[in-house]
Each structure stands twice: as C-alpha cells, then as structure tokens.
Amino acid sequence: MFKKLIGISIYQYVIAQRIQRAQELLRRCDFTIGEIALRCGFANNTHLTKHLAPEYLVTPIARRRQRTTILYGLDCHQLSIVK
Fold first, then answer.
1. Whole domain around residue 70: which residue ranges?
2. Average pLDDT of the chain?
3. Residue 83 lies in a domain
4. Backbone CA torsion sign across 56, 60, 66, 68
5. Beta carbons of 82 and 17 less than 8 angstroms apart
6. Do residues 81 and 39 make contact, with C-beta atoms less than 8 angstroms apart?
7. 3-state secondary structure at position 3
8. Residue-by-residue DSSP string for 31-77
9. What is the pTM of this model?
10. Does the residue 10 lie in any domain?
11. Are 40 and 48 in contact (CB under 8 A)?
12. Does residue 59 form part of some domain?
C-alpha cells in the first residue's frame, strides 16, 4: 500500500529521510560524522557513508566541506533525532 502511494518502499523512504537529516546536520553542525550517523538512525559512520555516497556521489566529509555558511544561533543539540 505504501509503495503504491509514495512510489518507494518504506525502507527506502526511511533511508531517504535519514540521509536528508544527515545532510542538514553536516551543513549546520560540528558533530563528528559518527555522531551524525547515530543521531540519524544509522549504525555508524560507515553505514551512513554507504547510503550517502552512492545517492549523492559524495562522502559525508566531502558534503561537510561543501557547506558555505554556518547558521549562527542554531543549537544542534536540540535538533530532533530521526529513528
């Protein structure tokens, strides 16, 4: 039912949401890659990289280097955790 409505499986949807959240944290926060992986529901930084790199052709570290601005006043510790 979910796949018919959305066009992807629940697993693919959850992974996409986790990747989107990880990208946001990589751009805005100074957490380690491992901390970001855990906050986004990945087992570790390797698991995050496995899903992020093929999808976006970039590793988490490279994604972090691409950030151009840091949003001041953002409390990264208050950002919700994706499960």
1. 2-78
2. 79
3. no
4. positive
5. yes
6. yes
7. helix
8. --HHHHHHHTT-SSHHHHHHHHHHHHSS-HHHHHHH-----TT--GG
9. 0.69
10. yes
11. yes
12. yes
Residues 46-82 have pLDDT tens digits of 999 888 876 666 667 776 776 544 444 445 555 555 5
Tokens of 27: 């751009």
29: three-class secondary structure by DSSP: coil
Instruction: Output the domain CATH number for residue 70.
Output: 1.10.10.60
CA 5 to each of CA 11, 15, 64, 83: distance values in angstroms, whole numbers, following the listed order: 14, 17, 33, 22
The amino acid that residue 26 corresponds to is L
Q: What is the domain count for the chain?
A: 1
Tell me how far apart the alpha carbons of residues 45 and 1 are, in angstroms, rounded to a whole number. Answer: 32
Q: How far apart are CA 77 and CA 68, in angstroms?
A: 21
- Cα–Cα distance, 40 to 48 (Å, whole number): 9
